[in-house]
Amino acid sequence: MITLDLSYQTAVVTGGKSGIGRGIVQILLQSGARVISADLAYDEEYKGVDGQLFESRLDLSKSEDIERWSRLVLEQAGVPDIVVNCAGTSTMDYVIDSKLEDWEKVFSINSTGLYLVYKIFAKAMVDAEKPGRIIQIASQAGKNGYRAMGGYCASKHAVLGLTKVMAIELARNNILVNAVCPGIVETPMKHRERIEGGIIRGMTAEEIYAEDCSQVPLGRTAEVQDVANVVLFLASPLSSYMTGQAINVTGGMTMH
Ligand SMILES: NC(=O)c1ccc[n+]([C@@H]2O[C@H](COP(=O)([O-])OP(=O)(O)OC[C@H]3O[C@@H](n4cnc5c(N)ncnc54)[C@H](O)[C@@H]3O)[C@@H](O)[C@H]2O)c1
Hints:
The chain is of the alpha/beta class.
């Protein structure tokens, strides 16, 4: 297990209940941080699980819910040192067959929701004159195009654009803003995408899994830990001279 010491640091992680977000929550807890995990799948507004972990219900697709939730988090936990935007979703269809409502749903969570969380917590950090780290979980889909993922790819390109602007604007406040671009990670979202993509392409989920592995130079898809390790590095003092970066964690699949 890899750990760095983040004792006395408070981290907010959206999408912390499942997949990559869950891995990030775990590694930050192991490093000693106090973690507020926020997710649509939690039942309670704000619940202490133990002295270190707090769970909080948030619907990132609704701006009024983000307002309510962020006020609550700032009241209960104060201004965080680390914010990780990991919640995300996808829909699958070729662009010419896709529905506007799917496009809007994906953008509302992956781009607009992330922007609002970003904005509220960055403002709180600036007002408190607190240095900090903001880490966006984007995707290699923010750099490339993938079939049947028009809305998702566009929403992740938006995240990388915003990351660069926020990095420049917040540099003087010593708030470092970076994005992580995972490749193919074994999570519930990826398993659903293989089933939905398989229907569109006339393939089984197993065939798509084999295709996925064949496209990765390292020869395997990622586990959530592979991504969480890089988030931990970005959250730690080891990344003190990095901002505005979009770091690939793709097993070599994306190199730009
Ligand atoms: N799995 C991959 O291959 C992969 C690759 C690149 C990037 N990503 C990105 O990583 C992030 C996490 O994806 P994952 O694969 O772990 O997916 P996941 O489905 O396992 O987890 C996503 C989490 O986000 C939460 N969520 C969804 N909608 C929400 C909303 N409206 N409000 C609050 N929370 C909401 C879900 O409840 C879930 O806990 C996403 O941003 C995704 O785009 C995933």
